[in-house]
Give the backbone structure.
Amino acid sequence: MRLWTMAVAGLGGAALALSLSALTANAQESDWEEKPYIIEDGKVDYGTYNGYRRYHNTCHVCHGPDALGSSFAPSLKDSLKTMSYTDFLEVVTNGRQAKRSGNQDSVMPSFAENGDVMLYIDHIYAYLKARSDDAVGRGRPERLPPEEDVVFQEWKESQ
Amino acid sequence: MHGFKLLAASSLVAVIGLAPSHGLANDELVEMQKNPKNWVMPLGNYAGTRYSELDQINKGNVGDLQVAWTFSTGVLRGHEGGPLVIDGVMYIHAPFPNTVFALDLNEDGRMIWKYEPKQDPNVIPVMCCDTVNRGVAYADGTIFLHQADTTVVALDAKTGEVKWSVKNGDPSKGETGTAAPLVAGDKVLIGNSGGEFGVQGHLTAYNISDGSIAWRAYSIGPDDMTLLDPENTTHLGEPVGADSGTATWEGDQWKLGGGTTWGWTTYDPELNLIYYGSGNPGTWNPVQRPGDNRWSMTIFARDLDTGTAKWVYQMTPHDEWDFDGVNEMMLVDQEIDGEMRKTLVHPDRNGFAYTLDRETGELLVAKKYDPVVNWATEVDMETGRPQVVADYSTGQQGEDVNTQGICPAALGTKDQQPSTYSPKTGLFYIPTNHVCMDYEPFQVSYTAGQPYVGATLSMYPAPDSHGGLGNFIAWDATKGEIVWSKPEPFSVWSGALATAGDVVFYGTLEGYLKAVDPETGDELFKFKTPSGIIGNVNTYEHDGKQYVAILSGIGGWAGIGLAAGLTESTAGLGAVGAYESLANYTNLGGQLTVFALPSS
């Protein structure tokens, strides 16, 4: 299991993430970028749900719970209002020395080598985009049943 | 047994006699920690009680306290730890880049010197939750600093010049430095951080004269790494057996096993034992590491000279909640069941406060110090094991299952913020969190230098309670009972101070320095400093006048987790509603505030 994941991560984060996004986006790249999530009756698709989990595994220690920002790093709920998918991917892949004023001595790490992030980067993006559109609230979103969830079916097939 | 030990101790003195400066440093500090005019180590004294004999500021006049002078560190990140005071000079430190200042108390904190190390900023992203540092240590005319990038540096206390410097770890693997050093005898003890990156936890003793390594004791690994003696090191009175630090792990998982030592170390000069705890085992997903995962989440009692463990006690075998065992170990002699015992008192992250015999490691008391603690019903006093409740066992519930309503949250009923003990009341005063969580573990893979966590958490105020996120409590460690509990809107994340003036001080996340009555918890004084307090209060006397000093500067886990406020995350748990965002109360900025009574 571990070997497999590491091998995949070794392919190179950005390339991998882009190919996944192509998969998920179902050929309609720009629509997907605008609305990368599905929400029905308050229930979210597997990608958005998994994005919530992955965000709160790796990103929340700096960006705060529910993408609301912290004393250390900005609110991604706000950032994603203006940030493109490409720019998002660029920052997560390469990291960034703090540029924002008043953010002395904080650093955004590079996650290019981290399979636990790069494999699921589209899911994290979907969750953050849903947060920034106010489409999902705080806390754990409820998941669509697998049989009604096209994203889940697609994801399972791709594995 | 006893006679043998005394003999060993006296032959030790003879050996030390050959190198006079070492012996001197030892005696010097043992004496200096008894002088209440100074504050010579982060926890005030070797016993870690943060108690001061000063009584000029007392219950009757503390309400008149005024700000005497202030000082900005020029750093915005979270300021943990607190000042040292030695003979008219105050030493304070800042988070990354770990600037150290020597301030002249004769001139309201004029800078005598300032030391700013050059560190690679790439260490910042592997520091998990902000770039905190818990303070410097003093001995033998030297200030010891443990930097974020794990460099340990000895500075001339008069000039700030570097005497020596060594590297304790490798930040590219996620090893970092946040813990304050402790000098005991001729050694400076350094713990490491990086439990969220799958590093190997260890405590290292460096010789204070030149920075050479005297010994290094890993928390986890074979006996030659852990310095455990299969026959003579005991766990609740029983020998630990061979390679106990790998025997309860599967395969090579122990190599990513964590057990970092980022909390506080205390020292009993008579027993010549040092005490500290180890943190979480590698990956927060318990399913990936079956077994007890010894010796993560463990209290260690080690011989200062050799590092060999006399006894160990694992509080949370096979952790499933991130209940690091690193909190302070307070060394106080107390009467238990009619008998005076040399005890060690340790309020753990897991919500139980432990009282042990610090000579033998015998477990005397283990009780919940927040009534909402629910992950275990009790600690079995025979086996020392917590009786885990299946509903709150994230391992039994399994991977990809969200286990709900666990109290306390991963922050613990308390984190590293050190408690205080007053010999006048016989009570411990403990800053606590009152926060619960949902926890979902899942598979993760290891990449060196990348987070190795494997769980999603959400936290919220303890349900069916006062709605706030913290309490400041008085604790009877002989019985295991809360004497009083003062609710706070936010977690209490500041180190406390008790004094002979019958006052107990602590800071709050909104930025208040508060003074309360040790008998009742009634508030006697409060003042709002410029930023939230996660630092530790101290007191000292200068020119016949008593002062109280505190570092403000919101950040750390508290600043990250609470900046946006916590909400009721799961409907039906009955949380008393959302608490407001901490960000509405306070802003970043490191500042020292020094208080005194008005001169009349």
About this structure: The CA atoms of residues 49 and 141 of chain A lie 6 Å apart. The longest strand of chain A covers residues 39-40. Residues 46-63 of chain A form the longest helix (18 residues). The radius of gyration of chain A is 15 Å.
